[in-house]
Specification:
Layout (H helix, E strand, L loop, with lengths): L1 H10 L3 H13 L7 H15 L2 H7 L3 H13 L27 H11 L7 H20 L3 H12 L7 H11 L4 H36 L1 H4 L7 H11 L6 H24 L6 H7 L13 H11 L2 H11 L6 H4 L1 H4 L2 H16 L14 H8 L5 H22 L8 H18 L3 H12 L2
Helix pairs in contact: 1-2, 1-10, 2-3, 2-5, 3-5, 5-6, 6-7, 7-8, 10-12, 10-13, 12-13, 12-22, 13-16, 15-19, 15-20, 19-21, 19-22, 20-21, 22-23
């Protein structure tokens, strides 16, 4: 394994090519094998990147600076958005001369996904790059290049699960043939190893669920241990975290069961005491539609994300004493941002998919009631805007310094990345989930 990494790094004799190889290793989801090497490379890059004279001398290429910016922010380093100032005109707009470089535009679009609140330059970069890339697909790109651009726009790396997008990335990789062959070999080896681990974990989870006997007692609740397991499988990508994946599946299964009981089968009277026990609002079910902001605040709590991430915090051994145990309660923004993404994505989908009859309402319902005359399409755009805000919130919480381990932070990000796959409620999303499940 280390010999292969040396081969990969030797190919990249210049800094840019080295960063591209780091990016490639991360994109195919095998970075955990080489984390020490990647840490060293990005630490050196951060020193160079934050030195203004060095940056002015070595970072004149838009693609290079976009890639460096993204990799460093993904690593937790705070890099100011003003590094893009040289590429912008007097009115804060990107210079049009950069509008014909497809690779640079894709890099810029990818970098813009790491924005935090108040970074107007990155919002301009996202709009500029996405508009031009969409136009290129329609007018000037061949089929293969258009497919690559389309995948970038729909599945930017920062907001996607590497294990799902790896196959497309390897197919479209334009690096040296030696690098591509090594990456393919590593990806295949990792897939075989991971598949064996996941099968063993799923067997143990299925045995636990069967022994628990809940499937017989709760006949109306969905019996889906494989679906429950996909969340820990996505969140905890490191192979060594097998025990944590198994244990995290258990509270997730209970969240799903409680959700089924509440949303699908219970009547208002039957669930009155139950709702108090799980701290879930009854306003929508009783005909009193809350304000959209109030609904979302409640939805963050009732999403189950807090339960999942608090369990994960302790499963990772981070709450070893009273002082460290208080960290997760004193720093809840990272949890709330993931919960917001889940709640809003869920509400973008069709409630009919789960045969729900409106007991829990949706952000869309509340917003339309509050803003009479708004069309569904307008409200959906508002929800998408709120999701983007939640991502900026999450991005900020993942920057260093923060009180959490890198494993916990990455797991939080992976849960947010998993959400669109689980809650899109369309045929394409079902195909994606099927492919993930079929892999194990």
């Amino acid at each position: 394994m280390s010999d292969m990494m040396c081969t990969l790094l030797k190919v990249g004799e210049d800094p840019l090519e080295g960063l591209m190889l780091v990016d490639a290793v991360q994109r195919i989801g095998i970075d955990y094998y080489f984390q020490n090497e990647i840490d060293a490379i990005l630490e050196r890059e951060y020193v160079n990147f934050t030195n203004s004279s060095s940056r002015e001398r070595n970072y004149q290429d838009l693609f290079h600076i976009s890639l460096s910016f993204r990799l460093l922010r993904q690593q937790g380093y705070y890099v100011p958005a003003d590094v893009f100032d040289n590429f912008m005109g007097k009115e804060g707009k990107m210079k049009q001369k950069y509008g014909k470089d497809t690779r640079a535009l894709m890099g810029l679009y990818e970098a813009s996904q790491l924005s935090i609140e108040g970074e107007d330059a990155l919002e301009e970069a996202r709009n500029f790059s996405s508009q031009l890339l969409n136009a290129m697909m329609r007018t000037s790109l061949n089929c293969n290049d258009a497919r690559v651009v389309n995948n970038t726009l729909k599945h930017p790396y920062h907001k996607s699960l590497a294990k799902f997008t790896a196959k497309n990335f390897i197919r479209d990789y334009n690096g040296a043939s030696a690098s591509k062959n090594a990456l393919q070999e590593l990806a295949k080896m990792d897939f075989d190893m991971s598949q064996s681990v996941h099968i063993n974990e799923l067997v143990e989870i299925s045995r636990w669920w069967k022994d628990l006997g809940s499937a017989k007692e709760l006949k109306l609740a969905r019996d889906q241990p494989l679906k429950w397991y996909t969340w820990p499988m996505a969140a905890l990508s490191y192979p060594r975290l097998s025990k944590q994946r198994i244990e995290l599946t258990k509270p997730i299964s209970l969240i799903y069961i409680i959700d089924d009981i509440f949303d699908l089968y219970g009547t208002l009277n039957e669930l009155a005491l139950f709702a108090q026990a799980v701290n879930r609002s009854k306003m929508v079910a009783s005909g009193c539609v809350p304000k959209a902001a109030e609904y979302l605040k409640n939805g963050i709590v009732s999403s189950g994300i807090h339960v999942v991430l608090v369990h994960l915090f302790f499963l990772l051994g981070e709450g070893t004493n009273k002082e460290s145990a208080n960290i997760v309660n004193a720093n809840t923004d990272i949890i709330s941002s993931v919960a917001s993404i889940l709640r809003l994505w869920d509400d973008l989908g069709s409630a009919n998919d789960e045969n729900q009859d409106g007991h829990d309402g949706s952000y869309i319902t509340c917003y339309m009631e509050e803003h009479q005359g708004s069309s569904v399409d307008v409200v959906r755009q508002e929800v998408i805007k709120k999701i983007m805000e939640a991502w900026r919130w999450l991005n900020k919480e993942c920057l260093l310094p923060n009180p959490f381990s890198g494993t916990f932070t990455k797991a939080s990000l992976n849960l947010a990345r998993m959400v669109p796959l689980m809650y899109s409620y369309d045929d394409l999303a079902r195909i994606k989930i099927f492919q993930i499940l079929r892999s194990i």
